[in-house]
Amino acid sequence: MTFPFAIASFDAFPSFRMSFDVLADKKKNTIGVQWFVAIAIAYLLLFRNGEVSQTPLAYFLLATALASAIVVQRLPESAFNRPVFCQALMIIDTILMSAAIYLNNESSWDLLLIFFFGILIAAIAENFLQVVLTSFLLGLTSVFISPTDLEFRLRPDGLLRVSLLFGASILYGYLAEQVKVEKRKKAVLEKTMQQRLLTKDQFLSHVSHELRSPITAIYQFVTILIDGLAGDLNPDQQEYLNIVLRNVAQLRNMITDLLEATRAETGKLAFEPRCASLSQLASEVLETTLATAVAKGVRLTVDVPTDLPFVFGDPARIKQILTNLIENAIKFTPAKGEIALRSQVDNQDPNFLRIAVADSGCGISPEGTKKIFDRLFQETETIDSNRQGLGLGLYICKELVNLHGGKIWVESDLGKGSTFCFTLPIFSLSKILYPVITDGNRLKANIAMITVGRIPANGSSPWRMTDAMRREIRKILQGCSLPDTRLLLPSVTDRGESDVFYLVDCLDQQGADLTVQMIEEKLRGSKALQVPDGGLAVSYRMVSAPRQETSLSLECLVDEVATAIRGQMLLTVSDGENEKDQTYVAEMSHGIKTPLNVVLGYSGMLRDKLLGDLNPTQEEALDKVIAHTNDLIVAFDNVLEAQRIKDRTVSVENHELNVLELLEELKMNYGTTQNKALFLIWDQPAELPVMVTDAVKLRLIFRNLINNAIKFTEKGSVRVSTEFNAKSQSLEFKVSDTGIGIAKEAIPGIFHQFLQLQPSQINPMTGMGLGLYIVKTLTHLLGGKVAVESEPGKGSAFIVTLPAHAATTN
I need a surface site. Which of 39, 122, 450, 633 has the fewest CB within 10 A? Predict the structure, then answer.
């Protein structure tokens, strides 16, 4: 917030324009008020009783004030933006000014009191103008009121009082306002960041389901065709369907990477570290990647000794890192090349394992090695059209390694191959327990081990604990943890998730009893844990701490406690079972939509019987593939457009457009619907004027309205009609349906972003809630307007009116 003050403008002197904004130029204004401090202090120190002072202390303080003004004048711009700068300057100036008033014999004690009262006003006033007016009135009052008899009379030091208090008010008002502005900026920034994270979470939750569902459907139907379940295929059909399947798999991996990158940016990556065997994880990754390597003619070897120490990490995340690195190596290694996965204890830090994935591929340039882990970076020296992706795999690897507390780097020579290395911490229960069970240089007196496990139902065999139950129990117990006092322990075996959970609590028996009661209450209050007969038991036992003999170090004592706790955990553990700006938008658009277009193109060729005849079942399966692919393309377009709108990078590119050709193109794209009881009707005159508009955005408006109508109409018709209004020189596009309609009270909010009507208002089919938001936003950008007419049970009509010639609105 700024406070314009003392603005003067004179028409008689047009060259003279004066405006004083206390916050417009922080450096310039601060230097100005600091020189005022130096001048005021010089006056107070040098002139006393009508004579020039000869006191050495006065000259010393004067030199200090002048030096502070000179130093402030020579400071760089960045120094003035530091939060502590104004506070430090206020303290220094207050000391100097107070000393100068005290040493001036003409100034009575009340001037010092009024001076500090002015400082108080500057600190608590709401704005700068209040500071100036209040202190000015205070100065005038002090001129006429005597501090002893409260009589009104003109004081001899009146000029000094008014100028000093007025100037001091400007100084401290300005500095105090600077501090307040910095605090407000910080609060606004924190609020903006929180809102941004909330928006990203909401965006991610909608996009995740809506993009994955049609891809899964496409994958399933293509697999049915390839497997011959719908009928025999000739070699050409088999080949083209395999191309479709590879692109669908590529697309699915891209979406997974995209979602993971977004979670990494928002700090929402799921991470559940525990004891894990790297050799076992490497074997599982080898099983999933070996087929790809063999198909390309690349030799893949694994050298991870089984006697390596366990690592402390999330098994699923470690497999994700290894899979990303190996698949990246396969992608950039030519046929007859080699890839090797190796691991050993890190020579530089024995508390970590070092894992390396080496290949004999094309290598990375020296410049590329510096940026290879950046989001969206792709090595331009080696990449070709068959190897392009989103450039997120290595970025995700870096984020996951950092989450484990390790580090990742690459060693490479262009044309000679690359070696990606990363480190993971070795599992050590002692290191996990150390900060909890120690107090300074000794063990804590009381250590309790709390166990949460399942109880057999009515004496029968134990009931099965689901993954959802485990997550809920872990969430509850993590909420019960306290820093340096109570800790939820990770699993100490590599046999998967356990049905028994352990906490270490450094309290005596009475405290442990209270903790057990609290956990039992939280477990009983959870709706996700309705298990037979209560189903969960919470108990504890005190851990016998070793005698703290002087001959044993604290580390050895902690090791003994860790050994005892680990032994108890191994006795009762049960077996279980294991499961991110404008450049970003552009890269995602190209990387994801390319395989989608391939799927659509080849599926269309098959459906049009260009490669051979199809039976009805095959035709129906291909119709579903094409329909889901079209839906997915529109969904991606909506996501990208919504991101551009959010980033304010959306632009309108107007060109001449033949509306009839656009409508014919849409008619061909939609053809006939999968629903035999639903008919698409196209109603437009034989002639329409040529529009000047953005064809891409108009096409997206149409597709969203048509898809929306089809989605909520089970039977009847969807009519797309177009009319030209010669009087207003506008075109009216209307998409009407005989569907379920929209309740009157729901209509005002249907164009909101991410809004979806409740299941009671619509059928079970849902979307991301972006389509109608995109329609309204793009229509506004094209200079038009959108309206809706609807009646529940009878259908809806969306009318978009656009000018025939460009008239954009930003």
Answer: 39
